[in-house]
């Protein structure tokens, strides 16, 4: 067998087991235990016929890698256990210059207040001339930290892009396509960049629109590959604008025409019978994690949940697939069968006659609070509500997550309870 395959197998299995959490236990092993472990490596080396790293080298390299990560993360709990070595270049000795973050400089200056600078620098293993320089720049350091510029380069630093005009044109092309809700891929960016490069007298030998260039172009223009979102989202300013307009509309309503029991808020929500949990506690590192299904993944019903403004919850209406187009009361809830189990206009009309019957209201008008779904906005639906003397308050598009009572307080607990009952029989089988 190819030694490279044997080496890969050794690395993925034997070495992975031998070095599991090695930074925790290897340092406390005795010499006899280390030799016993190393014998396993030597045996594998004879079988594979290739040179394998010994455990001591692996332990050392992983400890150094972990130490570097802790040093870079000032919020790590073990960060205080390490201290920076003195800057060798500043003291006149040979060595590579060390760089310090703005936060570190500011913290050192604040810690040095009221202390002997020379003694303090000896404890911190820093050149006292550096600390004195940081003290003189303390105001500037504080401003950078407060303004969020602590880790940013100075404007103009770094290598500049070679074809700024080309990149500007490509960036405008991407923005134009996204404004038209068209998909933009990395391959399309490369193709377009190559097509327009001739306009700037750039030869194909000079510019190849490589993957590396695409990476840098996306980073320079604050672009990235994004997954399509399903929710309708608004900008913060638009949310505030629509919320204020909605409040003004509600404030202008004369609520003396309505009884609290005749004012209802409703929402339709789809319920999938196979919504069992897809997460479980299992052994870390397990290659496969199986979760049994409910065997009803494709089954779906629609539920209309309602709450009256006097605080009472109305009986839910469950819309299932079937041919009985008549509302029946089954086990304490209303059930209606339709062809596709959707909340169509016909379904909503039957539900409204049940929830807000004209006979029971007398001379009082009804009030319906719901979202701006297409079935709610239809002209035929508005005419129906007018005939039944039912007024409506429609939640603005994109604002249901902020203004709709059912979305905020009812739907989530309802689906959580359903998922609990889905999981209970699955877990007990």
Polypeptide structure, described:
- By secondary structure, the protein is an alpha/beta fold.
- The protein is built from 18 helices and seven strands.
- The chain has helices at 3-18, 22-25, 31-48, 55-72, 102-112, 117-124, 128-136, 138-146, 164-179, 186-196, 211-220, 236-251, 345-355, 358-361, 374-377, 379-387, 400-403, 405-427; strands at 258-272, 300-308, 317-321, 328-330, 333-338, 365-370, 390-394.
- It has a seven-stranded mixed sheet with strand order 4-5-3-2-1-6-7.
- It starts with a helix and ends with a helix.
In short:
This protein is an alpha/beta fold. Helices cover 47% and strands 11% of the residues.
In helices, the fraction of residues equals 40-55%
Query: Low-confidence segments, ≥5 residues, pLDDT <50?
Result: 87-94
β-strand number: 7
Largest sheet entry: 7 strands, mixed
Order of helices and strands: HHHHHHHHHHHHEEEEEHHEHHEHH
| Mean pLDDT metric | 81
How far is the first residue's CA from the last residue's CA?
Answer: 46 Å
What structural category characterises the helix and strand content?
Answer: alpha/beta
Q: Looking at the structure, what is the overall shape? A: extended
Strand residue percentage? 5-15%
The helix tally amounts to: 18
Please give the order of strands in the largest beta sheet.
4-5-3-2-1-6-7
Rg (CA only) = 34 Å
